[in-house]
């Protein structure tokens, strides 16, 4: 049998070309599949990382909430400790009560407490509080029920308190101007102006149902009225009602120091 050398050579060349092309295609396909596989792997890894990030974000948020709760509890503990120390120092002179209602009306502010005549609360009892390192006047009891009572705050228009400038001893009358407003001290002799200073303390004078010596607040401004010889004094209340949680009712209207 006679073989044509040129034919054999051509066949070998075709086979070589086929195998070369096949190898190239397989190589490229392998590269494509590897790329696709890596893409899916990367996507899955990204999803896993994203899930982990979300998990840790939630954990951080939970820890932040726990931290805030701990800080709130610490602050509450400090406030309660201050109240307890104040009450313990003269527990026989006070009845402690928690504020359960506060009406923010600009015309007539009222508050309610969780103690009534079953707890020894009586009408016209004086309410004081301890706040930011000071004990100060809150108001007086105007209505008593079995287990609750209503207090007329110092800021109420209907509240009038005989008061004294602690430094100079001049007297006047404290009047409420409504919720969120400063108190007014009226009917003060103009001779008091000589020694009057911004920041001077005002206390109860003891000429009304309010016992003597209860801290009311500090002077923020004053001026002489044009139509008479009296002073009009603005007073910042010592006790901020919005921050108030507890009050202490004074037994037998005993004198209280600042």
TrEMBL record:
Q: Which UniProt keywords apply?
A: Cell shape, Coiled coil
Organism of provenance:
Borreliella burgdorferi (strain ATCC 35210 / DSM 4680 / CIP 102532 / B31)
GO cellular component labels: plasma membrane
State the gene name recorded for this protein: mreC
UniProt lists the family membership as follows: Belongs to the MreC family.
Q: Which residues form a coiled coil?
A: 46-90
Q: What is this protein called?
A: Cell shape-determining protein MreC
- Any single biological process term in GO: regulation of cell shape
Q: Which residues form the Rod shape-determining protein MreC beta-barrel core domain?
A: 99-251
Any Pfam family matching the protein: MreC
Asked if the keyword Cytoplasm belongs to this entry, the reply reads no
Which InterPro entries does the protein's record reference?
Answer: Cell/Rod_1, Cell/Rod_MreC_2, MreC, MreC_beta-barrel_core
């Amino acid at each position: 049998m006679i073989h044509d050398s040129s034919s054999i050579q051509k066949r070998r060349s075709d086979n070589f070309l086929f195998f070369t092309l096949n190898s190239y295609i397989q190589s490229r396909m392998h590269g494509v599949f590897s790329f696709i596989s890596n893409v899916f792997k990367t996507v899955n890894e990204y999803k896993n990382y994203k899930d982990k990030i979300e998990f840790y974000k939630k954990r951080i948020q939970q820890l932040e909430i726990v931290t805030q709760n701990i800080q709130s509890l610490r602050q509450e503990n400090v406030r309660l400790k201050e109240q307890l120390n104040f009450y313990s120092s003269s527990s026989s002179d006070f009845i402690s009560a928690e504020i359960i209602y506060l009406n923010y009306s600009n015309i007539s502010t009222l508050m309610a407490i969780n103690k009534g005549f079953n707890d020894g609360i009586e009408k016209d009892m004086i309410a004081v509080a301890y706040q930011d390192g000071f004990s100060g006047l809150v108001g007086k009891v105007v209505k008593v029920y079995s287990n609750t009572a209503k207090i007329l705050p110092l800021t109420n228009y209907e509240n009038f308190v005989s008061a004294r400038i602690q430094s100079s001893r001049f007297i006047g009358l404290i009047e409420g101007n409504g919720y969120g407003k400063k108190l007014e001290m009226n009917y003060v002799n103009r001779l008091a102006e000589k020694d009057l200073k911004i920041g001077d303390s005002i206390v109860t004078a003891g000429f009304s149902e309010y016992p003597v010596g209860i801290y009311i607040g500090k002077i923020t401004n004053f001026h002489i009225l044009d139509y008479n010889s009296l002073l009009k004094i603005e007073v910042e209340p010592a006790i901020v009602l919005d921050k108030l949680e507890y009050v202490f009712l004074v037994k037998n209207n005993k004198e209280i120091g600042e």
